[in-house]
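Q: Here's a chain of 493 amino acids. Please give me its 3D structure as tokens.
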Amino acid sequence: MDWSNLLTIERFSKKENLFSENDKTKEWTFKKYNRGNFTCFDDDYQTIIKSASFRRLQDKTQVFPLEKNDFVRTRLTHSIETSAIARKLGNMVLANISLEINKNNNSYKDYQKNEEEMSTIPDLLACAGLLHDIGNPPFGHFGEVVMSDWFKNNIKHLKYKGKQLEDVLTKQQLEDLYNLDGNSQALRVVGKLHDLHNESGMNLTKSLLNILVKYPVKSTEVDKNSKDIKYHKLGYYASDFDMFDDIAQTTGTKLNDNEYARHPLTYLLEAADDIAYAAADIEDGLKKNYITVQDFIDYFEENVDESDDKNYSLLQKLKGQLEKNEQNELQVMQEWLDYVRDWLEYNAAYSFTYNYDAIMKGTYTKELLEGVYNSQTLKVLKGAADKYLFSNKEINKVELSGSVILEFLLNKFVGAILEYDEKDIKMTKENKKIIGLLSQNHMNVYNREKEKCVTEGDKVYLKLHLVIDYISGMTDSYAKRLCQELRGVTFFE
């Protein structure tokens, strides 16, 4: 892989010039402005933050569903934090590479050849950080599980024109439905569903789109036990293969006819995400009293002993600071978490530089933070969150209510969509009204893509995605409110 391709500024659609060619004064002003430090990735950044899809993240679950207190993270605040860390990691990596070049390290000849392009890496990673969760459905990762399980449990009972739906869809189409994932949905949202002025969604640079594909494999290739992390989840749906393949060919991450590599910057985005949520989840849990500082210390001591100097020293630092300031445990813990973030960021940047050759060849198979100096501390942060937050009864109760909401909506909309757009099927009046609720943007995408369908199954698959796109795009509050309205709860309480 080569940075001149990996950092391409090519888009699916050409962006229109801001000013008319006949207006020489305005055209000159526009070109002069472009000679500054404004890059194509700055343009992407503005497109993202102005989008409705990004704004909706403010009402999507990070850890605490339907949370009323504004001091805990939402998907929006988490994405902003991930963006900041990703940008920082980009700058750290560039600094590390510069140091290695000064030591006459020949591994970075491509940097010297593409130095101007590579200077945009921090901006590109900042954009990717904002987008990495944009495909997540309501109620966080639990929402993904609920929707996937609904299809696993219900496909066998659904029929289309008298045929079992399982017999109408291909194996990949079925596996797509059984493995619904926010990462794959993110590619659809930004590449197709956010219909602005053309058919290319937000019309972002292909390099940015490629970074979002954390798992460059189709659903039938998923192997959660694989030693290569890129096979752990699906990266794109069957309906989006042409878009993904075009992106990979342009960036050079397509290795051969059947294999794709991760974009090198995906590793840094993944590390930024891990660092952001691992520390933030504990901080939010402390603020809500779901975990105490002593709980965390006890858990740390259960999983790290004195023989692990790199990680045990971090625990000792926390205990020492608490002894000096016993009256304000939360403040001490927040400062310690900031300190740990800094160390994890250093670990990630070092790991990227150390494994640079394998990453650029597409042969690196692990996360950047796996096996680094402070990887055990990262595991402790995640493990403590699992033990004290994600198993908390209050969170579980709200998540279970979220599952009722999503299952109700899927029952309503899937039942209606199977009747929609069929000449030989007469829709019920109720189903016509239900279809009328769907997003016009999503309907436009369906109407464009159905023209490419070869089989009946292809069309049914697209119709099911129309429902998935609509429900996945909902905020937690809207999903709850729509469920109540359709059940008549808000009218008859």
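Q: Can you summarize the key feature?
A: Residues 138-179+395-493 form a domain with the eoxyguanosinetriphosphate triphosphohydrolase fold fold (CATH 1.10.3550.10).
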